[in-house]
Design goal:
Keywords: DNA recombination. This protein has about 325 residues and is mainly alpha-helical. The chain has helices at about 10-30, 40, 45-55, 60-80, 85-90, 95-105, 110-125, 150-160, 165-180, 185-190, 220-230, 250-255, 270-280, 285-295, 300-305, 315-320; strands at about 1-5, 195-200, 205-210, 215. It has a four-stranded mixed β-sheet with strand order 1-2-3-4. Helix 3 (about 45-55) packs across helix 4, helix 8 runs antiparallel to helix 9 (about 165-180) and helix 9 crosses helix 11. The chain starts with a strand and ends with a helix.
Amino acid sequence: MSTAPSECSSGTESVNRHAEELAHATNVVRGYRPNAIRPEHWAPVAQFTCQVGLDLEPVDRRRATETMRTLSQFVVWAHRQGMPLDREAIFTPDMVERYIAVACGHLAESSRATRRSDLRRFSAAVTRKAPWPPRAQRLRGDYAIVPYTPAEVARLLEVAAHQRTALQRRRLTAFLALGLGTGVYPREARSATTDDLVERHGRLCLNISGEHARLVPISPPHDTTLAEICSTDPATPILGFAAKEWDRAPLGHLLEDIDRPLDCPDLKAHRLRATWLLRHLDNRVHLNGLAQMAGVSSWKTFGHLMAYLPLIDEESLFEELTRR
């Protein structure tokens, strides 16, 4: 367990990290060599495809790799169908639909849907004349963030403790401890290591790097869980799982071997985070401080949770509002 840095990461450091990620993403696109495509099929389209990839401006290495994998297979297929290397000819609705129907039959339905969605998004971004409809505004009227109830939390912890193997127990226990104890975003959970567990003001904390760098004290009893992981397996990913750079659903793969009884609540990182937030709202933690710990810059998330806060009786409310 290490000692916390004396100062939080500066805004300049965050900007520099972002610039470095963009530079790495650009290098991934420029140097991309597909493993699943024969060199003689890739060579004629490589320059064209890489330029399309650059124009899509992936923000990090993982997205750059995913973008190029999808683009390369589509462009090679279209070129072998006799299409010219012209964006307006290749990236059309008809070509995308034909590719999904003809060339992606070996993929699972969910994978085909993802590839189709990506290609439609890419195509609309890199063409001007192709007949892509304007993107419709997303309707989020039914969107909801639902925290776990105390009974659901207890059941999740029980399920984690009774997994068949030590690795399954480690992964699920750590996943729950990070979500319920620190409210991390999914990408932060999968990158956290035991070296990120530090002490500050006599409390175990998680030092989170990235876009929303911050130091978060770990809520009990999850601090004990993470301390035990740090002690027994130092210098490792907290989740006991290292995601591949290209993996589109790393947490899904992390949890796919978990034994889930029929009465086990669904495992959702955003629900763990909401549960963490609600606990601190219920304990009347300072809102600005909680927003900082949650890595948010607006009150939108808190608004989703208001319906789950306990009511206060009128007399107590009046007393609080008239405190001197």
